[in-house]
Amino acid sequence: MSDASLNSDLVRQSAATLATAIARGEVSSEQVTQAHLDRIAEVDGQVNAFLFVDPEASLARAREVDAQISSGIIASPLAGVPIALKDLLATRGVPTTCGSKILEGWIPPYNATIVERLESAGVVSLGKTNMDEFAMGSSTENSGYGPTHNPWDLERIPGGSGGGSAAAIASFEAPLAIGTDTGGSIRQPAAVTGTVGVKPTYGGVSRYGIVALASSLDQAGPCARSVMDTALLHSIIAGHDPRDSTSINAPVPDVIAAAKSGDVRGMRIGVIKQLQGEGFQSGVISQFNAALEILAGLGAEIVEVSCEHFQYALGAYYLILPSEASSNLARFDGMRFGIRVGDDGQHSVEQVMSATREAGFGAEVKRRIMLGTYALSSGYYDAYYGQAQKIRTLITRDFEAAFAQVDVLVSPTAPTTAFKLGAKVNDPLAMYLNDIATIPVNLAGNCAMSLPAGLAPEDGLPVGFQIIAPAMADDRLYKVGSALEAALVDKWGGLLIDEVPSL
Ligand code: GLN
After folding, report:
1. What is the pLDDT of residue 79?
2. Strand, coil or helix: what is 94?
3. 134 neighbors 364 (Cβ within 8 angstroms)
4. Residues assigned a catalytic role
5. Which DSSP category does 400 fall into?
6. What is the distance in A from the centroid of ligand 1 to the CA of 318?
7. Which of 34, 70, 153, 301 has its CA 20 to 30 A from that of 426?
8. What is the pLDDT of residues 447-465, one digit of tens each?
9. What residues are paired with 114 via a beta bridge?
């Protein structure tokens, strides 16, 4: 086989297949890493999924891992497999921008816990992926470094904020990626790129070393092209971390066993009444319903469940998130991280801070800092932030009541398929409406998966199917997800992503 065809074969393999081949010595991590670096060099000019790639460093690490695997030092289910990291994970010695100009040139002195766990498991970093600035957005158009393009149609958005991670996987530049999901930033990009993404239970994966957006909502998770690959990655990054005070000190649910079982017989699946009607594209609904029929055919019982307070979720989220963000982003003042503007000896510290923030932050970040500062100001605190927290409690109770009746809940992940770049940039409210189905999960702190349900007939673009489970029942996501995926693979003769136009 020529180098070129060997490479194109390698980038199309699942992470599980690659790991097995590497473990058996059939291919080296260096070869697999090289194949993905070649693919990045070939297509990323069109996709713009990566903000930083250091081919020499990745290859050097791959060679190290090859040596460790052959001497038996590393044995993990993903040893030697490459990964793309969202650019808000602190990576020692490697630039970390959060998609913002304010952090241009910042090089963290330490690694996020996730990065450390990946390193000990022998997973090789390919680089850092593009994102909406500080993870605020649904299209990656708020990046300070230009938008990412959706491999299904380069004129369309890849979702956000983790559009870079999702597009990297969908364009075969990486078999795996890490995303973060504060309001849907793993699941909505997965939905619109025909890939799989999981927001684990809040506290299930360490937040140490993840640049904070809204600390009570943020959660990192796995992105991949199949449910099993997502499970393998989940099992490596999850688990208690004493360096994160909200990390749950309990055993991680066995997501790999669940992904292998794929049996939904006798499971009760609740369809959320509030997340299907108005505002949802017809092809999204039709593919969602077709997937439900498949699950019913596999022996699950499908019932409708009402979650009355979900209609207020978006409003509550867009008060809680800006409030927490306005406080978290106060640390970017030009003194400690990234750029500093106007420090010429003629201006006061306050003037330098203000000039730095004015120059370094984009419009959406400024909008949310202002919104949050307003919502937290004395005299308005109870009316806005306090009220939003009460709604948060009511949404959590809706979930509790629903999970008393069913094992998992389901809905479309996003109301539409990928829209055109530029279509919603000037209409923040229209942009926020993308998050209508994903946000309740972050507010309640439980877990959810998005996986492909098919292509919408009217535009031929991927539709995401969302599965939601109670906190610390992440294994149920994988059980239902793998059952649905297996049935769809039978129907389509492969994964949906195999249909993506080649770039
Ligand atoms: N669309 C959501 C927002 O803009 C996504 C946030 C996230 O999950 N990081 O707030």
Report:
1. 98
2. strand
3. no
4. 86, 161, 185
5. H
6. 10
7. 153
8. 999 999 999 999 999 999 9
9. none
Counting ligand 1 atoms within 8 A of each CB, the residue from 88, 131, 136, 433 with the most, and so the one to mutate, is 136
The whole-number pLDDT of residue 277 equals 81
Question: Would you say the C-alpha torsion 139, 226, 470, 238 has a positive or negative sign?
Answer: negative
Q: Is 159 left (phi over 0), alpha (psi -120 to 50) or beta?
A: left
**Residue whose structure tokens are 């690694």:** 111
Gyration radius from the chain CA atoms: 21
Domains of the chain by start residue, with CATH: 3-309+396-494 (3.90.1300.10)
Give residue ranges with CB within 6 A of ligand 1. 135-138, 161, 181-185, 213, 321, 435
Q: Are 137 and 431 in contact (CB under 8 A)?
A: yes
Which among 131, 133, 182, 192 is the best mutation to test ligand 1's pocket, defined by most ligand atoms within 8 Å of the CB? 182
CA–CA distance, 370 with 385 (Å, rounded to integer): 14
Q: How far is the CA of 438 from the centre of ligand 1 (A)?
A: 9
Dihedral sign for Cα 490, 491, 492, 495, please. negative
**31 phi, psi to nearest 5 deg:** -65, -45
The model's pTM is 0.98
Nearest atom in ligand 1 to the alpha carbon of residue 138 is: 1
Q: Residue 211: what residue type?
A: V
Look up residue 50 and give its two tokens: 């990566």
Q: How many whole angstroms from 468 Cα to the centroid of ligand 1? A: 18
pLDDT at 2 over 60: no
Q: What is the pLDDT of residues 54-113, one digit of tens each?
A: 999 999 999 999 999 999 998 799 999 999 999 999 999 999 999 999 999 999 999 999
Distance 470 CA to ligand 1 centre (A): 21
Q: pLDDT grade, residue 7 (50/70/90)?
A: confident
Pocket residue to mutate for ligand 1, from 132, 134, 143, 210, most atoms within 8 A of Cβ: 132
